[in-house]
UniProtKB/TrEMBL annotation:
The gene is thiL. CDD domains: ThiL. Substrate binds at residues 65, 291, 343. Pathway: Cofactor biosynthesis; thiamine diphosphate biosynthesis; thiamine diphosphate from thiamine phosphate: step 1/1. Mg(2+) 2 binds at residues 58, 87. Gene3D superfamilies: PurM-like C-terminal domain, PurM-like, N-terminal domain. It catalyses: thiamine phosphate + ATP = thiamine diphosphate + ADP. Its EC number is 2.7.4.16. This is Thiamine-monophosphate kinase. The keyword Membrane does not apply. Mg(2+) 3 binds at residues 42, 87, 238. Mg(2+) 1 binds at residues 57-58, 135. Belongs to the thiamine-monophosphate kinase family.
Amino acid sequence: MIEDKNQQRTALSDLGEFGLIDHLTSQFKVSQKSTIQSIGDDAAVLEFKNKQIVVTTDLLVEGVHFDLSYMPLKHLGYKAVIVNLSDVFAMNAKATQITVSIAVSNRFPLEALEELYAGIGTAAKIYDIDVVGGDTTSSTSGLLISVTAIGEVEKEDVVCRSGAKPNDLLVVTGDLGGAYMGLQVLEREKQVFLVNPNSQPDMEPYSYIIERQLKPEARKDIVKLFKDLEVKPTSMIDVSDGLSSEIMHLCKHSKVGCDLYEEKLPLDPQVISTCEEFNIDSTTVALNGGEDYELLFTLSQEDYPKIKANPNFTVIGYMTEPNVGMHLVTRAETKIPLQAQGWNALNDQE
Ligand SMILES: [Mg+2]
């Protein structure tokens, strides 16, 4: 489907690998002080002085993690960067560099890759990171994108999954479930389109949740906000697989239990109305939807006054002694064990 939009089709073989890399990466400018040598040598050279360095990587595979029939390549490039930056921010670190590698089949012309790299370039600009390397190779089937992100953090500021204590507050940024419901709408419209290519869906009522799916943002602003508020979470993780599974990671690594309150889950009105339309339970979506790229963290109760009035944060529960276990406290005030049904990327392939 993407091919239809491109008037011009320049075969990748016309450029050769090095010509292609030069062509795609010439837009990237260096702005980080820690970037000593960027693209153009055998390796990038980075210098961080006294900082601790965080490194994270993600591999996105066509047909498993994205569907190009509704995911514009520009958005895909953007999202591939965002999902990695989100992991850097989840360490309370500042993102500084990325490398981008792609494997691509000959069904993609140069113009398609230009779109992809335009999205990567936009994300790099907005989040002020340098693209310092990568690789391009051929693929016999679909498109693969692997992004590695590098960040820096003062030793005393780094936040891991392992520091939560009983009685700490459990806090999440933004709202949950939007990306998952956006995906449901896109999947439905794809099916409608396959049956009736002339249908003109009105996507306006779903604008927020579709944006959450196609063009998510990572919470760079929250890392800065923590500094401004003089708050350091005791543990932190980003919400990529779904709230339940992320809470279970925090509990497991911190060796604590947790009570999560259903009535506290932050939901956008568009998520609620779309859940009603699809007859899906909004709590299930908030718990297991995934891809929200919000930050989930725990905070010592004495720091509560510092975040109390801030609309970015919702306290959704608190941590307990480990022997108590992990529970969802429902609106009816019954306690049910928390389960991670979060969409496991590997199970999804079946
Ligand atoms: Mg993560």
